[in-house]
């Protein structure tokens, strides 16, 4: 989940005494995961799409848009191939060196970027890849879903749509939500298959004034690591044919004597 720093509206074009600051809203977000195997290691390719709006408190208020929007984003351990775009234009990012973000499976590093210029509506997309974590023999990944700052009286609900494609053999897929390190709640999901690819769909709704579900954790078993390679039966067949052929030759020669 995207975290916008507390001082995002410090730099504005207008006089703060006569204008009001906007409210940031994100009614929906789409997060697509693709689970693949590379050199014997499971990886998650993550693509997040975040439509963001700046809303005004009242129609009578003068709308004040900030010059820039600083942003930090937590990344799982081993994250690589990071790309951040605003309205399909890629922007630069750097490592955030001042703090880490705590999750139920450990403290994560963060990255930092600045959105500039800022408009009343913009589309943020983030791509990154990270290795799947293995805990007690199970594979899992966590998506940090913190929507509290986006829920206001102007936009009191937000829905996150997750689509997870397993392009490797998996079984026993489970999903949980977690607000703490130790207490995880089972989360319902749908599962379908397309051309031997398992696809999981999860919907998480957050509403102002209601208890937030917390982060999403998905666990699964890696069947590809358990499937033995096909035994080379020709190792047996060829020697058998050689032995049989030798016996036939010996018998034939004896009969010919």
Describe this structure in words.
The protein has one helix and 18 strands. It has one helix at residues 234-256; strands spanning 3-4, 23-25, 28-38, 41-55, 69-75, 80-86, 89-91, 94-103, 106-115, 121-131, 133-135, 138-143, 157-166, 170-178, 184-186, 190-194, 197-207, 215-222. The protein is 9% helix and 52% strand. The N and C termini lie far apart (88 Å). A hairpin with a 2-residue loop joins strand 11 and strand 12 (138-143). The protein has a single domain, classed as tricorn interacting facor f3 domain (Immunoglobulin-like, Sandwich). The longest helix has 23 residues, at 234-256. The strands form three sheets. Strands 2, 3, 4, 6, 7, 10, 13, 16 and 17 form a nine-stranded mixed β-sheet that branches. By secondary structure, it is mainly β.
Pattern of helices and strands: EEEEEEEEEEEEEEEEEEH
CATH-defined superfamily: tricorn interacting facor f3 domain
Uncertain stretches of 5 or more adjacent residues: 5-16, 227-231, 233-238
Rg over CA atoms, rounded to whole Å, is 27 Å
Major sheet size, sense and barrel closure:
9 strands, mixed
The CATH top-level class label: Mainly Beta
Helical amount: under 10%
Structural class: mainly beta
Beginning-to-end CA distance, first to last residue: 88 Å
Please state the second-level CATH architecture. Sandwich
How many discrete structural domains?
1
Instruction: Indicate the overall shape.
Output: globular
Give the DSSP E fraction (strand runs of 2 or more residues).
Answer: over 45%
Individual helix count:
1
- What is the residue-mean pLDDT, rounded to a whole number? 84
């Amino acid at each position: 989940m995207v975290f916008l720093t507390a001082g995002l509206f410090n730099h504005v074009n207008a006089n703060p005494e006569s204008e009001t600051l906007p409210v940031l809203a994100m009614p929906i977000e789409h997060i697509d995961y693709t689970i693949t195997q590379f050199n014997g290691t499971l990886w998650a390719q993550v693509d997040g799409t975040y439509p963001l709006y700046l809303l005004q408190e009242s129609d009578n208020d003068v709308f004040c848009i900030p010059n820039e929007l600083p942003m930090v984003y937590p990344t799982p351990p081993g994250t690589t191939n990071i790309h951040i775009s605003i309205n399909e234009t890629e922007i630069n990012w750097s490592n955030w060196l001042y703090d880490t973000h705590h999750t139920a499976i450990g403290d994560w590093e963060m990255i930092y970027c600045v959105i500039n210029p800022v408009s009343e509506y913009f589309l943020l997309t983030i791509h990154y890849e990270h290795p799947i974590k293995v805990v007690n023999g199970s594979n899992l990944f966590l998506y940090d879903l913190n929507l509290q700052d986006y829920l206001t009286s102007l936009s009191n609900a937000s829905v996150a749509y997750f689509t997870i494609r397993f392009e490797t053999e998996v079984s026993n897929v489970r999903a949980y939500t977690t607000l703490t390190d130790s207490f995880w709640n089972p989360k319902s999901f749908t599962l379908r298959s397309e051309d031997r690819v398992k696809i999981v769909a999860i919907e998480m709704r957050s509403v102002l004034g209601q208890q937030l579900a917390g982060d999403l954790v998905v666990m699964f078993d890696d069947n590809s690591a358990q499937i033995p390679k096909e035994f080379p039966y020709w190792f047996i067949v060829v020697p058998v044919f050689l032995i049989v052929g030798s016996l036939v030759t010996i018998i034939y020669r004896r009969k010919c004597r």
